[in-house]
Amino acid sequence: MFLFRIKSELSSLKVSFIFFLPLLAFLIKNSMKNIVLITGATSGIGLACAKKFAGNGHDLIITGRRNDRLNKISEQLEQDHSVKVLTLNFDVRDNGAVKNALTNLPEEWSKIDILINNAGLAVGMSTVQNGEIDDWERMIDTNIKGLLYVTRAVLPGMTERRKGHVINIGSVAGKEVYPFGNVYCATKHAVDALTKGIRIDTVKQGIKVTQIAPGAVETEFSVVRFKGDENRAHSIYKGFEPLHPEDIATVAYFATTLPAHANINDLVIMPTAQASATILNKE
Ligand SMILES: NC(=O)c1ccc[n+]([C@@H]2O[C@H](COP(=O)([O-])OP(=O)(O)OC[C@H]3O[C@@H](n4cnc5c(N)ncnc54)[C@H](OP(=O)(O)O)[C@@H]3O)[C@@H](O)[C@H]2O)c1
Fold first, then answer.
1. Given this model, what pLDDT does residue 32 score?
2. CATH architecture, domain defined by 33-269
3. What is the pTM of this model?
4. Do residues 199 and 156 touch, judged by C-beta distance below 8 A?
5. Ligand 1 centre and the CA of 142: distance in Å?
6. For a tag on the chain, would you pick the N or C end, based on fewer CB atoms within 10 A?
7. Minimal-distance CA residue to ligand 1 atom 29
8. How does pLDDT run across 205-233, given as a tens digit for each residue?
9. What is the pLDDT of residue 10?
Protein backbone atom coordinates (compact mmCIF):
# COMPACT_ATOMS: atom_id res chain seq x y z
CA MET A 1 0.00 0.00 0.00
CA PHE A 2 2.74 2.36 1.08
CA LEU A 3 4.84 1.51 -1.98
CA PHE A 4 1.83 1.97 -4.23
CA ARG A 5 1.27 5.50 -2.82
CA ILE A 6 4.89 6.51 -3.39
CA LYS A 7 4.72 5.13 -6.93
CA SER A 8 1.54 7.02 -7.77
CA GLU A 9 2.88 10.26 -6.25
CA LEU A 10 6.07 9.91 -8.26
CA SER A 11 4.15 9.36 -11.45
CA SER A 12 1.93 12.43 -10.84
CA LEU A 13 5.13 14.42 -10.17
CA LYS A 14 6.45 13.16 -13.50
CA VAL A 15 3.26 14.30 -15.25
CA SER A 16 3.43 17.80 -13.75
CA PHE A 17 7.18 17.97 -14.54
CA ILE A 18 6.49 17.09 -18.18
CA PHE A 19 3.69 19.64 -18.21
CA PHE A 20 5.65 22.46 -16.57
CA LEU A 21 9.05 21.89 -18.22
CA PRO A 22 8.21 23.64 -21.53
CA LEU A 23 6.57 26.48 -19.58
CA LEU A 24 9.68 26.83 -17.42
CA ALA A 25 11.96 26.79 -20.48
CA PHE A 26 9.76 29.45 -22.11
CA LEU A 27 9.89 31.66 -18.99
CA ILE A 28 13.68 31.31 -18.64
CA LYS A 29 14.23 32.05 -22.35
CA ASN A 30 12.04 35.14 -22.18
CA SER A 31 13.63 36.45 -19.00
CA MET A 32 17.03 36.27 -20.76
CA LYS A 33 15.74 37.92 -23.93
CA ASN A 34 17.11 41.40 -24.57
CA ILE A 35 15.99 44.17 -26.88
CA VAL A 36 19.01 45.05 -29.00
CA LEU A 37 19.09 48.23 -31.10
CA ILE A 38 21.61 48.08 -33.94
CA THR A 39 22.20 51.15 -36.11
CA GLY A 40 23.33 50.55 -39.68
CA ALA A 41 22.10 46.96 -39.88
CA THR A 42 21.56 46.94 -43.66
CA SER A 43 25.05 45.60 -44.38
CA GLY A 44 28.46 44.60 -43.04
CA ILE A 45 29.10 44.58 -39.31
CA GLY A 46 25.61 45.78 -38.34
CA LEU A 47 23.94 43.04 -40.36
CA ALA A 48 26.29 40.39 -38.91
CA CYS A 49 25.46 41.64 -35.38
CA ALA A 50 21.74 41.43 -36.18
CA LYS A 51 22.14 37.79 -37.25
CA LYS A 52 24.27 36.94 -34.21
CA PHE A 53 21.92 38.45 -31.63
CA ALA A 54 18.80 37.08 -33.35
CA GLY A 55 20.49 33.66 -33.51
CA ASN A 56 20.84 33.85 -29.74
CA GLY A 57 17.16 34.58 -29.25
CA HIS A 58 17.15 38.36 -28.80
CA ASP A 59 14.54 40.74 -30.22
CA LEU A 60 15.97 43.44 -32.45
CA ILE A 61 15.42 47.01 -33.51
CA ILE A 62 17.38 47.46 -36.72
CA THR A 63 17.96 50.79 -38.45
CA GLY A 64 19.35 52.15 -41.69
CA ARG A 65 18.45 54.35 -44.63
CA ARG A 66 17.81 51.54 -47.14
CA ASN A 67 14.31 50.53 -46.14
CA ASP A 68 13.92 47.76 -48.73
CA ARG A 69 16.96 46.00 -47.26
CA LEU A 70 15.71 46.53 -43.69
CA ASN A 71 12.37 44.90 -44.52
CA LYS A 72 13.96 41.89 -46.21
CA ILE A 73 16.45 41.40 -43.37
CA SER A 74 13.72 41.67 -40.76
CA GLU A 75 11.51 39.11 -42.53
CA GLN A 76 14.43 36.67 -42.85
CA LEU A 77 15.54 37.04 -39.21
CA GLU A 78 12.00 36.55 -37.88
CA GLN A 79 11.60 33.47 -40.04
CA ASP A 80 15.01 31.94 -39.20
CA HIS A 81 15.16 32.65 -35.49
CA SER A 82 11.60 33.12 -34.17
CA VAL A 83 12.44 36.54 -32.73
CA LYS A 84 10.66 39.85 -33.12
CA VAL A 85 12.27 42.52 -35.28
CA LEU A 86 11.28 46.18 -35.53
CA THR A 87 12.70 48.21 -38.42
CA LEU A 88 13.31 51.94 -38.16
CA ASN A 89 14.18 53.82 -41.29
CA PHE A 90 16.08 57.04 -40.55
CA ASP A 91 19.30 58.87 -41.26
CA VAL A 92 21.37 59.13 -38.05
CA ARG A 93 22.45 62.64 -39.14
CA ASP A 94 18.90 63.91 -38.75
CA ASN A 95 18.35 64.49 -35.03
CA GLY A 96 14.64 65.22 -35.54
CA ALA A 97 14.17 61.85 -37.26
CA VAL A 98 16.27 60.05 -34.62
CA LYS A 99 14.25 61.57 -31.77
CA ASN A 100 10.96 60.91 -33.49
CA ALA A 101 11.81 57.25 -34.09
CA LEU A 102 13.40 56.44 -30.74
CA THR A 103 11.37 58.44 -28.26
CA ASN A 104 8.00 57.27 -29.64
CA LEU A 105 8.67 53.54 -29.57
CA PRO A 106 5.72 51.23 -28.83
CA GLU A 107 5.73 50.29 -25.13
CA GLU A 108 6.89 46.71 -25.80
CA TRP A 109 10.00 48.04 -27.62
CA SER A 110 10.80 50.96 -25.33
CA LYS A 111 13.15 49.20 -22.89
CA ILE A 112 16.29 48.87 -24.96
CA ASP A 113 18.88 46.68 -23.19
CA ILE A 114 21.74 46.86 -25.68
CA LEU A 115 22.58 49.67 -28.10
CA ILE A 116 25.11 48.95 -30.84
CA ASN A 117 26.22 52.26 -32.36
CA ASN A 118 27.50 50.88 -35.63
CA ALA A 119 26.26 53.18 -38.42
CA GLY A 120 29.26 54.94 -39.84
CA LEU A 121 31.41 55.48 -42.86
CA ALA A 122 34.59 56.79 -44.41
CA VAL A 123 34.30 58.94 -47.51
CA GLY A 124 37.33 59.67 -49.66
CA MET A 125 41.06 59.57 -48.91
CA SER A 126 43.11 62.71 -49.37
CA THR A 127 45.33 65.17 -47.61
CA VAL A 128 43.63 67.92 -45.62
CA GLN A 129 44.90 70.54 -48.08
CA ASN A 130 43.08 68.75 -50.90
CA GLY A 131 40.11 67.49 -48.86
CA GLU A 132 36.47 67.63 -49.92
CA ILE A 133 34.48 69.59 -47.35
CA ASP A 134 31.34 67.63 -48.21
CA ASP A 135 33.12 64.33 -47.45
CA TRP A 136 34.29 65.70 -44.10
CA GLU A 137 30.81 66.78 -43.19
CA ARG A 138 29.31 63.38 -44.06
CA MET A 139 31.85 61.64 -41.81
CA ILE A 140 31.61 64.08 -38.92
CA ASP A 141 27.80 64.19 -39.06
CA THR A 142 27.41 60.41 -39.26
CA ASN A 143 30.23 59.05 -37.10
CA ILE A 144 30.18 61.64 -34.32
CA LYS A 145 26.91 63.54 -34.33
CA GLY A 146 24.79 60.56 -35.45
CA LEU A 147 26.24 58.38 -32.70
CA LEU A 148 25.56 61.14 -30.17
CA TYR A 149 21.95 61.71 -31.33
CA VAL A 150 21.10 58.00 -31.04
CA THR A 151 22.86 57.65 -27.69
CA ARG A 152 21.13 60.77 -26.33
CA ALA A 153 17.75 59.26 -27.24
CA VAL A 154 18.42 55.80 -25.77
CA LEU A 155 20.68 56.34 -22.75
CA PRO A 156 18.21 58.10 -20.40
CA GLY A 157 15.99 54.98 -20.41
CA MET A 158 18.99 52.83 -19.54
CA THR A 159 20.17 55.08 -16.71
CA GLU A 160 16.62 55.33 -15.33
CA ARG A 161 16.29 51.52 -15.29
CA ARG A 162 19.94 51.21 -14.15
CA LYS A 163 20.43 48.56 -16.81
CA GLY A 164 21.95 48.68 -20.25
CA HIS A 165 24.97 48.16 -22.47
CA VAL A 166 26.23 50.60 -25.09
CA ILE A 167 28.62 49.17 -27.67
CA ASN A 168 30.33 51.66 -29.97
CA ILE A 169 31.95 50.42 -33.14
CA GLY A 170 35.14 52.47 -33.27
CA SER A 171 38.14 51.60 -35.41
CA VAL A 172 41.89 51.19 -35.48
CA ALA A 173 41.51 54.68 -37.04
CA GLY A 174 40.48 55.81 -33.56
CA LYS A 175 43.78 54.57 -32.15
CA GLU A 176 46.19 55.66 -34.89
CA VAL A 177 46.26 58.20 -37.70
CA TYR A 178 47.24 56.94 -41.14
CA PRO A 179 48.15 58.79 -44.35
CA PHE A 180 45.12 60.34 -46.11
CA GLY A 181 42.85 59.20 -43.27
CA ASN A 182 42.88 62.51 -41.34
CA VAL A 183 39.17 63.30 -40.91
CA TYR A 184 37.93 59.70 -40.72
CA CYS A 185 40.63 59.05 -38.07
CA ALA A 186 39.50 62.20 -36.22
CA THR A 187 35.89 60.97 -36.13
CA LYS A 188 36.94 57.57 -34.80
CA HIS A 189 39.22 59.21 -32.21
CA ALA A 190 36.05 61.06 -31.17
CA VAL A 191 34.23 57.71 -30.83
CA ASP A 192 37.12 56.51 -28.64
CA ALA A 193 36.80 59.61 -26.43
CA LEU A 194 33.01 59.47 -26.32
CA THR A 195 33.08 55.82 -25.27
CA LYS A 196 35.28 56.78 -22.31
CA GLY A 197 33.05 59.77 -21.58
CA ILE A 198 29.82 57.75 -21.60
CA ARG A 199 31.48 55.15 -19.36
CA ILE A 200 32.36 57.87 -16.82
CA ASP A 201 28.92 59.50 -17.06
CA THR A 202 27.00 56.28 -16.43
CA VAL A 203 29.23 54.35 -14.04
CA LYS A 204 27.00 55.24 -11.07
CA GLN A 205 23.98 53.72 -12.81
CA GLY A 206 25.85 50.51 -13.63
CA ILE A 207 25.65 50.91 -17.39
CA LYS A 208 28.14 48.85 -19.41
CA VAL A 209 30.00 50.73 -22.14
CA THR A 210 32.28 49.04 -24.64
CA GLN A 211 34.23 50.15 -27.69
CA ILE A 212 35.12 47.59 -30.34
CA ALA A 213 37.86 48.92 -32.60
CA PRO A 214 38.38 46.76 -35.69
CA GLY A 215 41.17 46.80 -38.25
CA ALA A 216 40.33 45.86 -41.85
CA VAL A 217 36.94 44.16 -42.21
CA GLU A 218 35.63 43.27 -45.66
CA THR A 219 32.20 44.91 -45.97
CA GLU A 220 30.71 47.65 -48.17
CA PHE A 221 32.93 50.09 -46.23
CA SER A 222 35.57 50.53 -48.96
CA VAL A 223 32.98 50.72 -51.75
CA VAL A 224 31.44 53.64 -49.84
CA ARG A 225 34.85 55.18 -49.13
CA PHE A 226 35.84 55.03 -52.81
CA LYS A 227 32.42 56.28 -53.92
CA GLY A 228 31.34 53.15 -55.77
CA ASP A 229 34.73 52.21 -57.29
CA GLU A 230 34.42 48.45 -56.71
CA ASN A 231 37.84 47.59 -58.17
CA ARG A 232 39.66 50.00 -55.89
CA ALA A 233 37.57 48.80 -52.94
CA HIS A 234 38.35 45.12 -53.58
CA SER A 235 42.07 45.84 -54.03
CA ILE A 236 42.22 46.89 -50.35
CA TYR A 237 41.59 43.31 -49.23
CA LYS A 238 43.84 41.56 -51.76
CA GLY A 239 46.83 39.50 -50.58
CA PHE A 240 45.65 38.82 -47.01
CA GLU A 241 42.62 37.53 -45.20
CA PRO A 242 40.71 40.47 -43.76
CA LEU A 243 38.33 40.18 -40.84
CA HIS A 244 34.81 39.08 -41.68
CA PRO A 245 31.88 41.08 -40.27
CA GLU A 246 30.90 37.93 -38.35
CA ASP A 247 34.18 38.19 -36.38
CA ILE A 248 33.07 41.58 -35.04
CA ALA A 249 29.60 40.24 -34.28
CA THR A 250 31.18 37.37 -32.33
CA VAL A 251 33.13 39.72 -30.05
CA ALA A 252 30.21 42.16 -29.70
CA TYR A 253 27.99 39.29 -28.61
CA PHE A 254 30.70 37.95 -26.29
CA ALA A 255 30.98 41.36 -24.60
CA THR A 256 27.29 41.13 -23.69
CA THR A 257 27.59 37.67 -22.15
CA LEU A 258 29.96 38.59 -19.31
CA PRO A 259 28.56 38.59 -15.78
CA ALA A 260 27.01 41.78 -14.40
CA HIS A 261 30.22 42.84 -12.58
CA ALA A 262 32.50 42.64 -15.67
CA ASN A 263 32.74 45.19 -18.50
CA ILE A 264 34.98 45.23 -21.56
CA ASN A 265 35.94 48.89 -21.96
CA ASP A 266 37.93 48.63 -25.14
CA LEU A 267 38.63 45.84 -27.56
CA VAL A 268 40.96 46.14 -30.57
CA ILE A 269 40.64 43.39 -33.15
CA MET A 270 42.63 43.05 -36.37
CA PRO A 271 43.22 40.44 -39.04
CA THR A 272 46.16 38.25 -38.04
CA ALA A 273 47.95 39.69 -41.09
CA GLN A 274 47.55 43.26 -39.80
CA ALA A 275 49.82 44.59 -37.05
CA SER A 276 48.79 48.26 -37.14
CA ALA A 277 46.79 50.66 -39.29
CA THR A 278 49.56 50.66 -41.90
CA ILE A 279 51.46 47.38 -41.40
CA LEU A 280 49.92 44.54 -43.36
CA ASN A 281 51.51 41.24 -44.31
CA LYS A 282 50.27 41.10 -47.91
CA GLU A 283 51.32 38.24 -50.16
N1 LIG B 1 34.99 47.72 -42.59
C2 LIG B 1 36.02 48.11 -41.90
O3 LIG B 1 37.17 47.84 -42.28
C4 LIG B 1 35.83 48.85 -40.61
C5 LIG B 1 36.93 48.95 -39.75
C6 LIG B 1 36.77 49.64 -38.56
C7 LIG B 1 35.58 50.21 -38.23
N8 LIG B 1 34.52 50.12 -39.09
C9 LIG B 1 33.26 50.76 -38.68
O10 LIG B 1 32.26 49.78 -38.66
C11 LIG B 1 30.98 50.39 -38.81
C12 LIG B 1 30.18 49.62 -39.84
O13 LIG B 1 30.82 49.67 -41.08
P14 LIG B 1 30.85 48.45 -42.12
O15 LIG B 1 32.26 48.10 -42.33
O16 LIG B 1 29.90 47.39 -41.72
O17 LIG B 1 30.37 49.23 -43.44
P18 LIG B 1 29.06 49.07 -44.34
O19 LIG B 1 28.92 47.68 -44.83
O20 LIG B 1 29.16 50.16 -45.37
O21 LIG B 1 27.86 49.39 -43.34
C22 LIG B 1 27.60 50.68 -42.84
C23 LIG B 1 26.21 50.74 -42.26
O24 LIG B 1 26.01 52.04 -41.72
C25 LIG B 1 24.77 52.55 -42.19
N26 LIG B 1 24.84 54.00 -42.34
C27 LIG B 1 25.80 54.75 -42.95
N28 LIG B 1 25.47 56.04 -42.92
C29 LIG B 1 24.28 56.12 -42.28
C30 LIG B 1 23.40 57.20 -41.96
N31 LIG B 1 23.72 58.46 -42.27
N32 LIG B 1 22.26 56.93 -41.31
C33 LIG B 1 21.94 55.66 -41.00
N34 LIG B 1 22.72 54.61 -41.27
C35 LIG B 1 23.86 54.84 -41.92
C36 LIG B 1 24.55 51.86 -43.54
O37 LIG B 1 23.15 51.77 -43.80
P38 LIG B 1 22.35 52.56 -44.92
O39 LIG B 1 23.32 52.84 -46.04
O40 LIG B 1 21.24 51.65 -45.30
O41 LIG B 1 21.88 53.78 -44.24
C42 LIG B 1 25.13 50.48 -43.28
O43 LIG B 1 24.15 49.64 -42.72
C44 LIG B 1 31.27 51.84 -39.20
O45 LIG B 1 31.10 52.66 -38.07
C46 LIG B 1 32.73 51.83 -39.63
O47 LIG B 1 33.35 53.06 -39.44
C48 LIG B 1 34.63 49.44 -40.27
1. 75
2. 3-Layer(aba) Sandwich (3.40)
3. 0.93
4. no
5. 9
6. N
7. 119
8. 999 999 999 999 999 999 999 999 999 99
9. 54
Give the ranges where 32-144 is alpha helix by DSSP (H).
44-55, 67-81, 95-103, 133-139
- Which residue lies with its CA nearest to atom 2 of ligand 1? 217
The answer to whether the CB of 191 is under 6 A from ligand 1 is no
Rounded Cα distance, 283 and 30, in Å: 48
Does ligand 1 come within 6 angstroms of the Cβ of 268?
Answer: no
Does residue 46's CB lie within 6 angstroms of at least one atom of ligand 1? yes
State residue 19's pLDDT score: 59
User: Domain spans of the chain?
Assistant: 33-269
Query: Is residue 5 predicted with pLDDT exceeding 80?
Result: no
DSSP output for 131-179: --HHHHHHHIIIIIIIHHHHHHHHHHHHHHHT--EEEEE--GGGT---T
